[in-house]
Design a protein that fits this description.
119 residues, alpha/beta, 5-stranded parallel beta sheet, Response regulator receiver protein, Sig_transdc_resp-reg_receiver, two-component regulatory system, phosphoprotein
């Protein structure tokens, strides 16, 4: 079973993505802060990480950098899942270590295919 670590502080967004992932047979683990997300990524080594960028402690860019610097989790695909949708935001996310970029609000009909592209 494919494990997805969702790092997201908004309970409504977390509920939606968890529901969609579980419906499609993914195992879901969660973190509501960047620091917790980094810890879980290193400890649990999920198959893929969905990373919110706006988090309450360290932002998703910093969390991504810390994961990339770890030996244990450096190769895990990380998809920025964010409402940042300005010109250049996708490029910034990719240049800072994200494997992919999905804009919020997510499209429940497309999100699984988007995730599978990076697995």
């Amino acid at each position: 079973m494919t494990t997805v670590l969702v790092i997201e502080d908004n309970p409504n967004n977390l509920y939606l993505i968890r529901f969609i992932l579980k419906k499609h047979g993914f195992e879901v683990t969660e973190a509501d802060t960047g620091k917790k997300g980094v810890e879980k990524a290193i400890e649990e080594k999920p198959d893929i990480i969905l990373m919110d960028i706006q988090l309450p402690d360290i932002d998703g860019f910093e969390a991504t950098g810390r994961i990339r610097q770890s030996e244990e989790a450096a190769d895990i695909p990380i998809i920025a899942l964010t409402s940042y949708a300005m010109t250049g935001d996708r490029e910034k996310a990719l240049s800072l270590g994200c494997t992919g970029y999905i804009e919020k609000p997510i499209d429940p009909d497309k999100i699984i295919a988007q995730i599978k592209e990076y697995l």
